[in-house]
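Hey, resending since the last one bounced:
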Amino acid sequence: MKNNLDSLTHHVDPFSNKAKQLSLEFDTATINKDLKTLRELLDNAEKSLDNENDASKAMIYYSLGTAYDDFARFTNNRTEASFQKVISYFRKSIKLIEQDKYTDERYTPYVLGLKKYFILIMLML
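The structure tokens again:
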């Protein structure tokens, strides 16, 4: 019988450390309702996309979507335009993470984690 550690050794985390760190920074700013930092992150996050693989881009677009929605909510500025921007970030993220290469079982635990967040977010919208 395989133990759980052995089964994880063949899994590969496709998300870069930079994307995970950026996601954590968005989460921290959102939890703290730090509008200044959140605005700075929103303004600069897309610049980091150029040097990322597609899975990491998907994670960053997901973070942009959630953070943009949070920022609009915190500033009482939820509009049709802001909603469309959030949806466009989520669509970009989904399109990237749904590529055939990320259906490979070695990415499964990581990619499924991101997909579960999409389901939760879509239920909340």
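The mean pLDDT is 84.

Sorry for the duplicate.
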